[in-house]
Each structure stands twice: as structure tokens, then as C-alpha cells.
TrEMBL record:
Record-annotated membrane-spanning stretches: 909-932
Sequence ranges assigned to domain EMC1 first beta-propeller in this UniProt record: 24-412
Location relative to the cell: Endoplasmic reticulum membrane
Principal location listed in the UniProt entry: endoplasmic reticulum
Family: Belongs to the EMC1 family.
Gene3D superfamilies on file: YVTN repeat-like/Quinoprotein amine dehydrogenase
Matching SUPFAM superfamilies: Quinoprotein alcohol dehydrogenase-like
One BP term from GO: protein folding in endoplasmic reticulum
Quaternary structure annotation from Swiss-Prot or TrEMBL: Component of the ER membrane protein complex (EMC).
Species: Kalanchoe fedtschenkoi (Lavender scallops)
Signal peptide annotation: 1-23
UniProt-recorded name of the protein: ER membrane protein complex subunit 1
């Protein structure tokens, strides 16, 4: 994740026409839905440019994607998403034809075919203790079984054949107790050196025979000043690190296993007062780079470990690894950022102060700084060397720069979306033109290369929404008061209606200036029509939670309550009007917190204004009102769920068989909590059925009252849950049955059961309009049922419509990264094996032990939303229709009609026939009128 975030506004336009259907024909795929593929933020890259017609670069990303990109256009040739639990450690090239990837902390080594991306072989490398992961591929032209790769992972060193992935030998280094930093091999030698630190002041060199893994020698030497942090290998026998004070550099020579140290004070080297330094990761022959005093310093390692200062540059630079341009010469790239321009310099390793190439390229300021750069050489027509650079920007975008021009650009920040919200397009009004806003949308879309809009107003009945995705915001990174900004969420801030049309809608982006929960927060307000940042506000307090209050001021600004780590509540916007509105509802504001680690849920309410040295009218202390403590020796909280605050419920009454009525228990304060036995908190299979158990609760968050509790013996998580109206559906694993299950709980209000008496309704002696209070003990009844389900589930959502009339469907993000639509009727707890005729007329489906998986119900068709993390639904203006958007490494959008398009004409409706029918009817009416007039005239003449 980037150290800052940005709102990618107007990045996706969702168009749903008035002609909707409940399923798609083959030729309609891609018209009413779309799918975009991304790779994420690149962290490593290797080029394949030797053969004609195969100009590609293979990249590994922070989203654990390995992909091959076309160097000419930036298109994806092939791609493999390894998943969140298979983090990529390193990639390299073996035998000139395989891309080798090391992942899962050095446990899995794979070889992929360079041209097509097929998996050639895969090796699992077990180990004993966690350690640094390293991949070392010795340079060699041999293509045989003897060409080995060395892999360090989990304190074990493995020699693996490049041809078939066979493990030739294994050396367990746990007994050596060395924190390995690098693997080195002198040219032409069969001895490899494994070097690292043991303790705080000892340096170790382990010599191993590369042919059989025999440990030849283990030398250790102590350095009085101690060591700090990582080290940089500058040659096959020299390593550089920092001393424990971080104000001195230590060069360590280990030629032939003999260890010698040479210490150099940084202030003597640079000629300036030294602060604490950081060695930057780089692979430069005979050189290394470190950052100090907001500057980057290049240093050469001369004979006998002597350090020589080369050059000092600004902090906003990125340095590539060295590449070979001839048998005895290497080059590397240096990118410096200055305003709208980035300068790319390519330098020879031996001649640092002269540039082989230097180009300037203009880039969009919104992309932030350059984070990484990878260079590649090619032969020009005049036989001279040319260079291209693959540049990774701060917003995760990827660019290829060649000859001072951007050849192509990819917006891969959309693979790491933090949060999503929706917005409507504007209506026509003075000062705001729909066409102008559409033009702005089109310009944004051209930048992001997402979808073609076409003519947005070609159909006046089209329903258009667009999404706002939070990924990166440059202004927060530039703030002097905000270090290491992190994006949190995006909220609706101002949604003007017709009486306030002089204002554009805006959203509130909430971030945190640091990694800890007590880090100060930061706000950014963004105009959703123009994509421009309205203002940025650094907060004096932390942001632990944001509560959107159901109140707005006269300008339609939404009131927000920000809870800090000290349980204080801060009101925004800070205006006298918002404070007056807030104080009127002061006694009706409650919230809760979940402390999963300690197994505690607490409820809070507002107490009074904050008592502190600086008086703040908009700060309020909280009071603790209830606590639920789960015994940590038997229960661990693993999941919670609540209703969407903006969900629309059409009716509280539910008509059941025989014209009976049940009343839904509708409450925004209902919380679903799932706990498991501690032994079952791990992955599936970590506990036996006797040791596991799943317990679910329905809790009122105002009073802390447990309204319902259910046990699932022999079950364990992970638990995915969704709550809507008066029901909750959750997914878990049944260890006894060795199958996944989905359960449903519906909750009804029994206190309103007497309202079924017609005379009470006629005489007005009912309680349908009486206020509902959480403090009055509810008379509730619950119905539940469980079903087997085939798939593992990553996320669950539910469709939402404008009025809540349309039937609900569950949208299930499966382990296969697809979205399955499941009718809520299949999860009706009133299903029975032999439903009565009245129940059949009501729509009750006969009971089966498993939920059906209908291939046509996959809304993603044959596509995948790789790495799916969330599903968002938004109502369209047509009640029958809902927008569905899924995000992960990929993005996917479609529109659905769960109850079919009962409020619109079908797409194949014949408008020509309708027009012809109207013309015929008008003609018939006119002809009949003429004949009637003639007949009436004839009758009068008689």
C-alpha cells in the first residue's frame, strides 16, 4: 500500500438503460457490464528483449501478481494472481527462458514459461524457523540439471535444479543461529558464502560447497560498535552496513572467509552533521546508497573497504539496479522528480559523474513521486546503446519512458482500492451544465483508460452513476504536518438537493498520518463533479472511527462524529448550525466498539463537553453504558455485521400462508457477532470437531441486550455474514460434515402480533405507529435454518433498490473470484420438505439439504474478479434495478434485476409495432368518427 492515498474520481461510469432484462445473451456481455484487469503496484521487474517480436517485461507486484506486459503498449500478455497468503518474495530469470518466483516466505519456488506463462514446475521447500527469504541464481550459460538455484527460506538453504525444480540438497542453518543477509559466490568458484549477523555485534561467514551442500567452514568475528538494520552486498566479498548508532558505516570484507571490518563516520564522509541514516536497497556493483538529512548519498567501496563519497542528490529520487551493457561494464538509472518533470539519467557504474543518457519527461502531478525505476538497454540502428525505463509512481501507476516520452501508462492504483462510494450526475441548472460535467468525466476516463462513455444523453431514460474510489491523495503526502498518510474511508459529505443546487456534491476522505491508531487524522473534501480537492484539514486528534449521523444542515452537509483513540467524540463540520442540530439529538446518539483480541464489546453514549486545557465546543466526552465480555478461554470474536444505514425497507409486514401476517423486527441497532472456540480460530483443520464450535449472537447495540444466541457444534470459521432488513445470512465450515454451510436467522416483532385483528385496525386500537425503543424489552421470535453450500466464500453482499420493493438476492464472492447471485428465497427458514398449497402460492421453495449452484446465476459469467475484496450495490432510479460493483485486483460492474424488469419495457420490445398500432388506432378512430357522422346525418334526413 502506498504511503499516501488519492481519490480517483469519476473513474467508472455505470450506465443502465430503461430496457433491462434479468439475464444476458452472449452478444450482450460487455454491453451492460464491464471488466477491467490490473496488476497492482510493481515491486520487481525483469525484461525479455533479446529475441525479435518478444519485447516484454515480467513484473511482480504487492498484490502478489506475476504478469508479463507488452513493452510496446503495456497490455497484459499473461498474468497469475497468487493470492493474499502467497506473498511474492523475489523473481528472477533462469536459463534465459524461465521466470522464477519465490513466495510464501521462501517456501514455494515456481518456474513459469517466459513466452506464454505456463507453470513449468513447482517446488515446496520446507523449513524450521522464519528467516529472510533470498533467491540466488548463479550466472551460467549451461542448460542442464547441474545449473542450480539457491533458495533461502525458513532458515534452510536449498539447491534447486533449474530444469525440473528438483531439490538437489538442503542445508538447515537454524543451528548456526545466523540472521542471513546475503548469498555471494566468487566468479568461477564452487564455494558459496552465506553471510549475516548473529546477535547484535557478530558477523558470520558460512562457506558451503555448491555441488553437495557440505558445510566447509563457519567463521565469526565481533565488531565493538554493533550493527543496525539491513546490509548491502556491493561485491562477491564485501558487504556494507550501519553501526548501532546509525551514524557510522561499516564495510565488511570476507574474502576466503577471513573477516575484516573498516568503520567510517558518516559526517566525515559527507562533510555535514550526521543524523540517523538508512541504507537503501540497491544492487550496484562496488557502490551503495543511503538516505540521511533528507538527501540520498552515493558511496563507492574502494580497495580494503575504504569508502569514497561520490555524490549527494535530493531526497525525491529513485535508483535502479545495475544492468550489464557489455562484458565488463554496467549501467544504472537515476530518476529525480521536480514539479511536473521527472529527469531520467543513465550512468555507467565506473563513470558516475557522466551521463550516458539524460532525458526529461512531463508527468501528471497527481501521480505523486517516483517510487521505483527499472532500466533496460537496447541496441539502436546506429549500433549504440539506448535505454528505456519502467517507472512506478506513488499512486501505483506504471509508465514506460523511452527517449524522453511516455510510451504507455497503466493506472494500476485501481488494484488497491481502499473504499468506494457512489454519486449521481447533476441535473441541468444555472452554472452547472450536464454536458460540461460529462466532458470532465470523459477527460478523467481518458486519463484512467477505463471505459468509453459514448453519448451519455442518447437515452433520456438512462440511469447513470459513477463511483469514487479511494487509492491515493497527493496533497496529504505533501502536508508538512502529515507523515506517512494512510487512507481509511470515503463518506458522503454534501449531497445538495433542489433547494441548494448552487453547490456541487462532495465527499469526505478520511486518512491517518501514521500507522498507529493514535496517529493524528486528516480530512480531504473533494468535489465529485469536477474531481478537484476543495480543502484539506489536518486534525489535532486521532481517528479511530467515523460515525455518519442522520442529520444535515441547511446546505445539506452531513454531520459526522469522529471518535479518537481516547474515546472522545468530535463533531464535524465545525459550525454553529451543526452544533445546534447535534445538541438537539445529543441524548439519542450511541455507538459500540469491538475489541476482538480481548473478547469485549462495549457500548457508549455521549456524556458532556470535553474537559481539557483547550476548550472545544465541538468535542464531547463519552460514557460507558454496557459491556459484554466473552470468555477468551472458550470464545474468540471473528466476525461482526450490521445493516446498511441507508437501506430502505418497503414494509414491516410480511404476508405468509393463509393470509397471516408477521411483523419484521427492523432495527438499525442490531449487531451480528460470531465467535469460535480458540483452537478453531486458525485455518480449517486446525481443530477437531470436538474442539471446535461456532456461536452467533444478535445484540442490541443501544442496551447491550442479547436478543438471540445460537450454537453450531463442530463448526469453525472463517465466517462471512451479511445483514439486511430483519435477517442475517452467514457462511462457515462444518467440520463434522466436511462441508461449508450457510445459515439464516430471521427475527420478528411479536409485540405487534395483535395488530392482525381487523376491528382493532378499524378502531385505531393498534400500535403500528407507536414509537419503538431499545429500552423496552422486545417480544421477538426468531426462525432459522442451515443449508450445505458448495463453495468457500470471500465476501457476501445483498442487492439494494430505491424503494426496497424488489426481491433480495445475495451476491456471493466465491473462492474462485466470481460472483454468484443467490435468491434469498433459497435461504427462507420457513422452507419445508412438503410445503402446503398456500405456501407454494406464497413462493416457498421445497426444502433441500444444499443450496443450488446454477451456472447461469454467475453474474460475472466466465470472468474472474481476481483477488476480490468487496462487493458494492447501489440502487438505480428504476425500482427493479440495482448496480453491482466488485473490486479486488480487477474491477467488475454489471446491473441486475432480481425480480425482472417489472417497471420497464424489455430490450426486444418492438417500438415500430407500437407506433404502427397507435397509428392504426388513430386512423380507426378517425374513420369511425366520419362514418358515425354520416350515419347520424342520414338518420336526421329520414
Amino acid at each position: 500500500m502506498a504511503v499516501a492515498f488519492r481519490v480517483l474520481l469519476v473513474s467508472i461510469v455505470l450506465i443502465s438503460s430503461a430496457s433491462l432484462i434479468s439475464s444476458l445473451y452472449e452478444d450482450q456481455v460487455g454491453l451492460m457490464d464491464w471488466h477491467q484487469q490490473y496488476i497492482g503496484k510493481v515491486k520487481q521487474a525483469v525484461f525479455q528483449t533479446q529475441k525479435a517480436g518478444r519485447k516484454r517485461v515480467v513484473v511482480a507486484t504487492e498484490e502478489n501478481v506475476i504478469a508479463s506486459l507488452d513493452l510496446r503498449r503495456g497490455d497484459i500478455f499473461w498474468r497469475h494472481v497468487l493470492g493474499t497468503n502467497d506473498v511474492i518474495d523475489e523473481i528472477g530469470v533462469a536459463l534465459g527462458k524461465y521466470v522464477v518466483s519465490l513466495s510464501s516466505s521462501g517456501s514455494i519456488l515456481r518456474a513459469w514459461n517466459f513466452p506464454e506463462g505456463q507453470l513449468v514446475w513447482e517446488s515446496f521447500l520446507p523449513g524450521s524457523q522464519p528467516s529472510k527469504s533470498l533467491l540466488y541464481i548463479p550466472p551460467s550459460s549451461k542448460v542442464d540439471k547441474d545449473h542450480v538455484m539457491l533458495v533461502l527460506g525458513n532458515s534452510c538453504l536449498h539447491a534447486v535444479s533449474s530444469i525440473d525444480g528438483e531439490v538437489l540438497w538442503k542445508r538447515d542453518l537454524e543451528a548456526e543461529r545466523v540472521k542471513v543477509q546475503a548469498i555471494a559466490q566468487p566468479f568461477g568458484s564452487n564455494i558459496i558464502y552465506v553471510v549475516g549477523f548473529s546477535g547484535s555485534s557478530k558477523f558470520d561467514v558460512i562457506q558451503i560447497d555448491i555441488k553437495n551442500g557440505e558445510l566447509l567452514k563457519h567463521n565469526t568475528a565481533s565488531f565493538p560498535g554493533g550493527f543496525y538494520g539491513e546490509a548491502s552486498l556491493v561485491s562477491s566479498d564485501t558487504l556494507v552496513t550501519l553501526d548501532s548508532s546509525r551514524r557510522g558505516l561499516v564495510s565488511i570484507n570476507f574474502l576466503d572467509g577471513e573477516i575484516s571490518f573498516k568503520s567510517t563516520d558518516i559526517s566525515d564522509l559527507t562533510g555535514t552533521t550526521s543524523e540517523e541514516a538508512v541504507i537503501l536497497p540497491s544492487k550496484l556493483s562496488g557502490k551503495f546508497v543511503f538516505r540521511i538529512n533528507s538527501q540520498v548519498v552515493f558511496v563507492r567501496v574502494a580497495e580494503e573497504g575504504k569508502l569514497e563519497f561520490i555524490e549527494k542528490v535530493g531526497n525525491d529520487v529513485a535508483v535502479s539496479d545495475a544492468i550489464s551493457v557489455s562484458e565488463d561494464q554496467q549501467a544504472f538509472g537515476l530518476v529525480e522528480h521536480s514539479g511536473h518533470t521527472i529527469q531520467l539519467s543513465v550512468k555507467l557504474a565506473r563513470e558516475f559523474r557522466s551521463d550516458v543518457m539524460k532525458d526529461s519527461t512531463e508527468v501528471d502531478l497527481q501521480k505523486g513521486l517516483v517510487h521505483k525505476v527499472f532500466v533496460n538497454s537496447y541496441i539502436r540502428t546506429d549500433r549504440s546503446y539506448g535505454f528505456r525505463a519502467l517507472v512506478v509512481m506513488e499512486d501505483h501507476s506504471l509508465m514506460l519512458i523511452q527517449q524522453g516520452a511516455i510510451v504507455w501508462s497503466r493506472e494500476d492504483g485501481l488494484a488497491s482500492v481502499l473504499d468506494v462510494t457512489t454519486s449521481e450526475l447533476p441535473v441541468e441548472k444555472d452554472g452547472v451544465s450536464v454536458a460540461k460535467v460529462e466532458h470532465s468525466l470523459f477527460e478523467w476516463l481518458k486519463i484512467l483508460r477505463l471505459v468509453k462513455i459514448g453519448s451519455l444523453l442518447s437515452d433520456l431514460l438512462n440511469h447513470i452513476k459513477y463511483l469514487l474510489l479511494v487509492a491515493y491523495m497527493k496533497s496529504l503526502r505533501e502536508s508538512e504536518t502529515c507523515e506517512h498518510p494512510r487512507g481509511l474511508n470515503v463518506y458522503q459529505w454534501q449531497v445538495p438537493h433542489h433547494h441548494a443546487l448552487d453547490e456541487n456534491p462532495s465527499v469526505l476522505v478520511v486518512g491517518r498520518c501514521g500507522n498507529g491508531l493514535d496517529a493524528p487524522g486528516v480530512f480531504s473534501l473533494v468535489d465529485t463533479y469536477l474531481g478537484s480537492e476543495v480543502s484539506t484539514l489536518g486534525l489535532s486528534h486521532s481517528v479511530a472511527r467515523v460515525i455518519q449521523l442522520p442529520f444535515t444542515d441547511s446546505t445539506e452537509q452531513r454531520l459526522h462524529l469522529i471518535l479518537d483513540s481516547g474515546k472522545k467524540a468530535h463533531l464535524y463540520p465545525k459550525t454553529a448550525e451543526s452544533l445546534d442540530i447535534f445538541q438537539q439529538e445529543f441524548q439519542n446518539i450511541y455507538w459500540y466498539s469491538v475489541e476482538a483480541d480481548s473478547g469485549v464489546i462495549r457500548g457508549y453514549a455521549l456524556k458532556s463537553s470535553c474537559i481539557s486545557e483547550v476548550y472545544d465546543d465541538f468535542c464531547f466526552d463519552s460514557r460507558h453504558i454496557w459491556t459484554i465480555v466473552f470468555p477468551i478461554e472458550s470464545e474468540k470474536i471473528i466476525s461482526t455485521a450490521t445493516r446498511a444505514s441507508n437501506e430502505v425497507v418497503h414494509t414491516q409486514a410480511k404476508i405468509i400462508a393463509d393470509q397471516d401476517v408477521m411483523y419484521k423486527y427492523i432495527s438499525n441497532n442490531l449487531v451480528f457477532v460470531a465467535t469460535v472456540a480458540p483452537k478453531a480460530a486458525g485455518p480449517i483443520g486446525s481443530a477437531t470437531p470436538e474442539e471446535s464450535g461456532l456461536v452467533v449472537y444478535l445484540i442490541d447495540s443501544i442496551t447491550g441486550r442479547i436478543l438471540h444466541r445460537m450454537n453450531h457444534y463442530g463448526a469453525q470459521g472463517p465466517v462471512q455474514a451479511v445483514m439486511s432488513e430483519n435477517w442475517v445470512v452467514y457462511h462457515y465450515f462444518n467440520l463434522r460434515a466436511h462441508r461449508y454451510e450457510m445459515s439464516v436467522i430471521e427475527i420478528y416483532d411479536q409485540s405487534r402480533a395483535d395488530n392482525k385483528n381487523v376491528w382493532k385496525l378499524v378502531l385505531g386500537k393498534h400500535n403500528l405507529t407507536s414509537p419503538v425503543s431499545s429500552y423496552s424489552r422486545p417480544e421477538i421470535v426468531t426462525k432459522s435454518q442451515s443449508y450445505f453450500f458448495t463453495h468457500s466464500v470471500k465476501t457476501i453482499a445483498v442487492t439494494s433498490t430505491a424503494k426496497g420493493i424488489t426481491s433480495k438476492q445475495l451476491l456471493i464472492g466465491t473462492i474462485g473470484d466470481q460472483i454468484l447471485a443467490l435468491d434469498k428465497r433459497y435461504l427462507d427458514p420457513r422452507r419445508s420438505v412438503n410445503p402446503t398449497q398456500a405456501e407454494k402460492e406464497e413462493g416457498i421453495i421445497p426444502l433441500t439439504d444444499a443450496l443450488p449452484i446454477i451456472p447461469q446465476s454467475y453474474v460475472t459469467h466466465a470472468l474472474k474478479v481476481e483477488g476480490i475484496r468487496g462487493i458494492i450495490t447501489a440502487p438505480a432510479k428504476l425500482e427493479s434495478t440495482t448496480h453491482v460493483f466488485a473490486y479486488g485486483v480487477d474491477l467488475f460492474y454489471t446491473r441486475m434485476a432480481p425480480s425482472k424488469t417489472f417497471d420497464s419495457l424489455t430490450e426486444d420490445f418492438s417500438y415500430a409495432l407500437l407506433l404502427l398500432t397507435i397509428i392504426v388506432l388513430v386512423g380507426a378512430i378517425f374513420a369511425t368518427w366520419i362514418l358515425s357522422e354520416r350515419k347520424e346525418l342520414q338518420d336526421k334526413w329520414r
